[in-house]
Each structure stands twice: as structure tokens, then as C-alpha cells.
Write a structure and sequence with these properties.
With 209 residues, this protein is α/β, with parallel strands linked by helices. The protein has helices at residues 25-37, 62-73, 84-88, 94-104, 116-119, 128-134, 154-157, 172-180, 191-200, and strands at 11-18, 42-47, 79-81, 108-115, 135-140, 160-163. The protein has one domain (11-168): HUPs (Rossmann fold), CATH 3.40.50.620. It has 9 helices and 6 strands, in the order βαβαβααβααβαβαα. Strands 3-2-1-4-5-6 form a 6-stranded parallel sheet. Bound molecules: adenosine-5'-triphosphate (ATP) and magnesium ion. Adenosine-5'-triphosphate binds next to α1, β4, α5 and α8. Pathway: Cofactor biosynthesis; NAD(+) biosynthesis; deamido-NAD(+) from nicotinate D-ribonucleotide: step 1/1. It is an enzyme of class 2 (transferase).
């Protein structure tokens, strides 16, 4: 985290990866928590094209998921959306993304933000040893997903820092279920996102605005 060649402080960039199907306030608060508590300068939201661990899921088309992310982050100038995994196509492995970012922005430090449901999966991530060499992880706890860092191999555990986020029992799965069954998802997603979902009838929603 020390000065780079130019003498300036390195930019600290959070990577918020996810399917975002759809993006919700849990994602936004996780990113804001990491930004605020871990001294990040920006958080880059990177929607996955095809998630490795969800293969088989049909899911919403990538352009729609990206459009909703862009609407969701519009009011926070430190958040950006990066469609690099969508542009690369195929299964989205975090290591490919991080290697590309590292090469493109050697002057930045990258911090990969993950919810507690994914922390225990880390040893199974594709080329995890290379990934842990390039990024640190910022973990945020999800309700009913207790974290036990002690179960992780030391090489991974030492790269994970937890940030304290108010627990939010919100998931995209639950939101999709609500929309499909005619229930409201208002306030679980930003107003702009909710409006877009309802107006476009996304996720099988029917005029519940
Ligand atoms: P799904 O139910 O479809 O899996 P999700 O709500 O888990 O959706 P993802 O796109 O899978 O959302 O998650 C992207 C990232 O955000 C993951 O690291 C996940 O752990 C984290 N995350 C999602 N929801 C929350 C939440 N409510 N609190 C903290 N982190 C969250
Ligand atoms: Mg998930």
C-alpha cells in the first residue's frame, strides 16, 4: 500500500463480483461498507457472464443484469460497473478478471469483496493460489451464513479481512421468488431498479408498482 514510482498513494480498488440477478441493497451496502471501512477509493461492480458455481442456472440475460447494476450505482460516484466478464464471455473465473485488471492497472491494489456464503468456497475457486497472490479479500457477513475463518487453509485465511456490515437477509433468489409470485420487492432494490423491473415486467413481475 506504499507509494508507487510516482510517489503517490496507490489507488485501492474494491471488486464487487456477482451475478446480480438482480442487484439489491445487500450488494450495495456490502460495497459501501468495504469502501468506508477498508479505505477503498472505488468499488468496481463486475457482473459475471456465466458463474462457475451456478452452471446450469438459466438466469437473466447479461445486458439486463448490467443495466440494473448501472441504475443501482448511479448515485454513488465511487461505484462503477465494468462489463469485462460479459465481454470476455464463457464461464467467468475471478482469476481471469483479476489478472486482466492487474495487467491493465498495475498501479492499483485490488480487494475482492465477498459475502460469507462464498468465503468457505474459496479453496475451490479456480486457481485460488494465484488469485490470493493478486488480491486480498474483504468479507462481509450474511445472516445465517456464519463465518469460520479457522477452517480455511492459512494461505487463504491470512488474505481475508472481515468488515462489519449490518446483517441484511436479502438475496436475489428471494427477490426473484417474490416477483414471480406477485409480491412486492420494493425497498429490497433501489427505486430506480424496482421501477425498471416492473415497467419491463422482468422476473415475471406483473404490475405491482
Ligand atoms: P443469488 O441468490 O442469486 O445467489 P445473491 O443475493 O447471493 O444472489 P450474488 O450475485 O450471488 O447475490 O452475490 C454477489 C456477491 O454479493 C457475493 O459475494 C455475495 O456473497 C454478496 N452478497 C449478496 N447478498 C448479500 C447480502 N445480503 N449481504 C452481504 N453480501 C451479500
Ligand atoms: Mg449468491
Amino acid at each position: 500500500n506504499q507509494a508507487s514510482q510516482g510517489g503517490g498513494r496507490k489507488q485501492q480498488i474494491g471488486i464487487m463480483g456477482g451475478t446480480f440477478d438482480p442487484v439489491h441493497v445487500g450488494h450495495l451496502l456490502a460495497a459501501e461498507t468495504a469502501l468506508d471501512q477498508c479505505g477503498l477509493d472505488q468499488v468496481w461492480f463486475i457482473p459475471t457472464n456465466v458463474p462457475p458455481l451456478k452452471a446450469g442456472d438459466q438466469g437473466t440475460d447479461a445486458e439486463t443484469r448490467l443495466r440494473l447494476v448501472r441504475l443501482a450505482i448511479k448515485s454513488q460516484p465511487r461505484f462503477q460497473a465494468l462489463p469485462i466478464e460479459l465481454e470476455r464471455g464463457g464461464v467467468s473465473y475471478s482469476i481471469d478478471t483479476v489478472e486482466a485488471l492487474h495487467a491493465a492497472y498495475p498501479e492499483h491494489d485490488f480487494h475482492y469483496i465477498i459475502g460469507s456464503d462464498r468465503i468457505h468456497d474459496l479453496p475451490q475457486w479456480h486457481r485460488i493460489d494465484e488469485l490470493t497472490a493478486l488480491v486480498r479479500f474483504i468479507g462481509v457477513e450474511r445472516p445465517n451464513e456464519p463465518v469460520d475463518l479457522a477452517v480455511l487453509p492459512e494461505a487463504i485465511r491470512t488474505r481475508v479481512t472481515m468488515a462489519a456490515m449490518p446483517p441484511m437477509g436479502i438475496s436475489s433468489t428471494d427477490i426473484r421468488q417474490r416477483l414471480l409470485t406477485g409480491q412486492s420487492a420494493r425497498y429490497l432494490v433501489p427505486d430506480t431498479v424496482y421501477h425498471e423491473i416492473i415497467v419491463e415486467g422482468l422476473y415475471g413481475s406483473r404490475s405491482h408498482y
